[in-house]
Amino acid sequence: MTNRTDVAAIIDHTLLKPEATPADVEALVSEAKELGVLAICVSPSMLPVTDSGELIVATVVGFPSGQVKAEIKAAEAARAVSDGADEVDMVINVGQAIAGDFDAVEADISGVVAASESSLVKVIIESAALTDEQIVEVCRRAEAAGAGFVKTSTGFHPAGGASAHAVSLMCETVGDRLGVKASGGIRTVEAAEEMIAAGASRLGLSGSAGILEELQG
């Protein structure tokens, strides 16, 4: 079984439910500090996050559909960074990837990277909705556009969330040049360990407490 401390150190403790309140975010921050995780991830309307301490603060852009004009996505990223986001998790236009318009996908990512300045950009590719070939090409384009991570899923797509196969394929494509974040439907210790074994260097979890408690036990 994976070491609890090591797992906590790669967790983005996530709260992206549409019904989340400012009080819920306060509770998330408190729990994140108690758990010793790396980061929190919240909706952009919840920024700035006060009293985040040493936690990395991440937010989402173009979430969850990705079907936002590129210039709007970039503007959203710029505003998020000015509101204190250390990291920006952007959703690609999945339809563009499926249609084979990878130049548009790359341009979309490039715009967010430029707008995010020094903040780390993670590119959510919605891997469950893509073929293996599309996953590989989107990852290549994310790297070319200057992203720091590729990420499996929003957790909101009906096609599903993270899979070990997708994580492995993403890792093979980007090597050690980019990070790979597994997110979406990871609710058990076994699932978390499977993603780490496949090569994930970051985990997006909403149920961090339960997974870490089981690891401690």
From TrEMBL:
Question: Which residues act catalytically here?
Answer: 89 (proton donor/acceptor), 151 (schiff-base intermediate with acetaldehyde), 181 (proton donor/acceptor)
* E.C. number: 4.1.2.4
Question: Which pathway does the database say it acts in?
Answer: Carbohydrate degradation; 2-deoxy-D-ribose 1-phosphate degradation; D-glyceraldehyde 3-phosphate and acetaldehyde from 2-deoxy-alpha-D-ribose 1-phosphate: step 2/2
The lineage's top-level taxon is Bacteria
Q: Which UniProt keywords apply?
A: Cytoplasm, Lyase, Schiff base
Top enzyme category? lyase
Supply the InterPro entries for this chain: Aldolase_TIM (IPR013785), DeoC (IPR011343), DeoC/FbaB/LacD_aldolase (IPR002915), DeoC_typeI (IPR028581)
Entry GO CC: cytoplasm
User: What's the short name of a Pfam family annotated to this entry?
Assistant: DeoC
- What positions belong to coiled-coil segments? none
Task: Give yes or no: UniProt keyword tRNA-binding.
Answer: no
Q: Catalyses which reaction?
A: 2-deoxy-D-ribose 5-phosphate = D-glyceraldehyde 3-phosphate + acetaldehyde
In terms of Gene3D superfamilies, this protein maps to: Aldolase class I
Give the SUPFAM superfamilies listed for this entry.
Aldolase (SSF51569)
Similarity field:
Belongs to the DeoC/FbaB aldolase family. DeoC type 1 subfamily.
Q: What's the name of the protein?
A: Deoxyribose-phosphate aldolase
| Species | Brevibacterium marinum
Phylogenetic lineage: Bacteria, Bacillati, Actinomycetota, Actinomycetes, Micrococcales
